């Protein structure tokens, strides 16, 4: 339960973080709205004077001036539009920047800005769609002003300084990046035997210069390397995704919180159901409970069309319900119904509910010191009252309705090392002796090879038991957790959800489902 509560608190924390992110972005949106409204209300002339003053102060303080500025626009940016690019071009032209590259990663339907309506292709571009000039070619009007400069307020730079009349603008596409460099290097590799390339390889500077020239030729323009770059991404103040996306993210986290709350309520319901059923069984008294269990087991045994000989119990790593008492009860049910073998595959750690079978059972006489095979209950010891220890406490001395059953149940402990790793070891041993007549003979007949592997696995395990017929998984989902795949290839598995109460009714329901199942063996 503590784990579920911690999970719910974690999802609540995620929801709070999402709410904080939403408020932060709302604040940024409001700040952008206020600043934009303030700029709009000041009037065009006042805004231009303010911008000229800021740009002049910036130019006076700069110790070096960038010649080439590159703008990188993220795919999820919705702020940079044609108007914003137009304004940035005006600032750059006024400050004295000569070249600007625009690397827009957005798609056409998601805010991509085409530079053709804003700029004019260069005269020497040779039809290339990569290089432009901004503003477009100046056309004189009757008022004597040139189109393009007047609207930006930067005809002669700041404070009357003479600046380039037009800005060189370049469009960068994703294909102009890594793929273009790869193409150039591939071209040089194809002519690696020529004197030109052999001479370039003698001097690294010459090779770098040749690659740069070829890249400029492919791009269709020759511009200096960028001095400064600016990223427009979701972390910037104005470059946020749409508010709908943020709200959807918050709703998603709220849904996660509701799912966690549902999971908590479901587990509380199971805990309460287990408490009620356990209290009911406890209040009925020991004798009444034993009579009820005997009656249910007798009725189940009479109705079953087939009886499992080997039952395997798989306990998930996160299960906290199956303890020593619950295993003891299941052993009693199995012994009473007539099951001869039970294997326990407990994936939990010792500090997280792992049950040691040694205190419950007794090692088999033929186990040779092995800690895998046991008998349950322990060896019977006669007391003064004439009852035998072990059977009386479970109420199943001679099975149900007085039928004769095995006096002791064969119990096996399965460890994770007894699964895939054990099969790998056996196959490795056979592979190492593959040249011997034994293995060559086994390879001629598949059944003989299967039988040999089974015998070697049984020898490694330290016991010989039939393959499991039925498996009960104590977990939230159906998973065998790597249980001995060689032995359970024909086993029928039934999942009992963790934390749900398990008693004789649950055990008989599993047996009924197993009895109704018909294995067709591939027919």
TrEMBL record:
Catalytic activities: n isopentenyl diphosphate + (2E,6E)-farnesyl diphosphate = a di-trans,poly-cis-polyprenyl diphosphate + n diphosphate
Keyword Magnesium tagged: yes
EC number annotated for this UniProt entry: 2.5.1.87
SUPFAM superfamilies per UniProt: Undecaprenyl diphosphate synthase
Involved pathway(s): Protein modification; protein glycosylation
Coiled-coil stretches: none
Key words, A-Z: Endoplasmic reticulum, Magnesium, Membrane, Transferase, Transmembrane, Transmembrane helix
Cofactor: Mg(2+)
Subcellular location: Endoplasmic reticulum membrane
One example GO MF annotation: ditrans,polycis-polyprenyl diphosphate synthase [(2E,6E)-farnesyl diphosphate specific] activity
GO cellular component: dehydrodolichyl diphosphate synthase complex; endoplasmic reticulum membrane
Superkingdom in the source lineage: Eukaryota
Family note: Belongs to the UPP synthase family.
Protein name: ditrans,polycis-polyprenyl diphosphate synthase [(2E,6E)-farnesyldiphosphate specific]
Species of origin: Drosophila persimilis (Fruit fly)
Taxonomic path: Eukaryota, Metazoa, Ecdysozoa, Arthropoda, Hexapoda
Protein's gene: Dper\GL15601
């Amino acid at each position: 339960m503590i784990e579920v509560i911690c999970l719910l608190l974690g999802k609540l924390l995620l929801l709070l973080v999402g709410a904080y992110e939403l408020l932060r972005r709302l604040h940024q949106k409001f700040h952008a709205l206020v600043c934009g409204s303030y700029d709009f209300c000041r009037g065009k002339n006042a805004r231009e004077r303010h911008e000229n003053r800021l740009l002049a102060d910036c130019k006076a303080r700069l110790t070096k001036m960038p010649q080439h500025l590159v703008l990188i626009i993220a795919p999820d940016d919705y702020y940079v539009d044609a108007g914003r690019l137009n304004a940035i071009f005006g600032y750059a032209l006024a400050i004295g920047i000569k070249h600007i590259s625009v690397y827009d990663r957005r798609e056409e339907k998601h805010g991509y800005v085409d530079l053709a309506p804003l700029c004019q292709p260069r005269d020497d571009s040779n039809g290339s769609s990569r290089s432009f000039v901004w503003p477009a070619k100046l056309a004189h009007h009757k008022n004597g002003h040139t189109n393009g400069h007047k609207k930006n307020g930067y005809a002669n730079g700041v404070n009357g300084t003479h600046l380039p009349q037009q800005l060189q603008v370049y469009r960068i596409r994703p294909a102009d990046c890594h793929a273009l460099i790869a193409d150039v290097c591939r071209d040089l590799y194809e002519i690696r035997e020529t004197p030109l390339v052999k001479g370039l390889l003698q001097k690294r500077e010459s090779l770098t210069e040749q690659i740069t020239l070829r890249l400029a030729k492919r791009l269709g323009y020759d511009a200096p390397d960028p001095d400064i770059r600016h990223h427009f991404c979701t972390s910037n103040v104005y470059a946020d995704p749409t508010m709908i996306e943020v709200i959807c993210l918050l709703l998603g986290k709220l849904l996660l919180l509701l799912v966690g709350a549902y999971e908590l309520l479901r587990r509380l319901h199971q805990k309460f159901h287990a408490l009620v059923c356990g209290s009911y069984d406890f209040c009925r008294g020991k004798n009444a409970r034993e009579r009820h269990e005997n009656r249910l087991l007798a009725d189940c045994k009479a109705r079953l069309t087939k009886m499992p000989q080997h039952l395997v119990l798989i306990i998930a790593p996160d299960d906290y319900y199956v303890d020593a008492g619950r295993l003891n009860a299941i052993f009693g049910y199995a012994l009473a119904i007539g099951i001869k073998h039970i294997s326990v595959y407990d994936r939990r750690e010792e500090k997280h509910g792992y049950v040691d079978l040694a205190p419950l059972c007794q090692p088999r006489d033929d186990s040779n010191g092995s800690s895998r095979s046991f008998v349950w209950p322990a060896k019977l010891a006669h007391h003064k009252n004439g009852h035998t220890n072990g059977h009386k406490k479970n109420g199943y001395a001679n099975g149900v309705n007085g039928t004769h059953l095995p006096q002791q149940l064969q119990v096996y402990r399965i460890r994770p090392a007894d699964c895939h790793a054990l099969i790998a070891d056996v196959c490795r041993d056979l592979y190492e002796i593959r040249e011997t007549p034994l293995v060559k003979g086994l390879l001629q007949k598949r059944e003989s090879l299967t039988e040999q592997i089974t015998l070697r696995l049984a020898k490694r395990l330290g016991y010989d038991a039939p393959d499991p017929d039925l498996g009960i998984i104590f977990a939230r989902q159906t998973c065998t957790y790597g249980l001995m795949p060689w032995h359970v290839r024909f086993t029928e598995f039934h999942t009992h959800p963790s934390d749900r109460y398990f008693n004789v009714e649950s055990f008989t329901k599993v047996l009924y489902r197993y009895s109704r199942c018909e294995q067709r063996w591939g027919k």
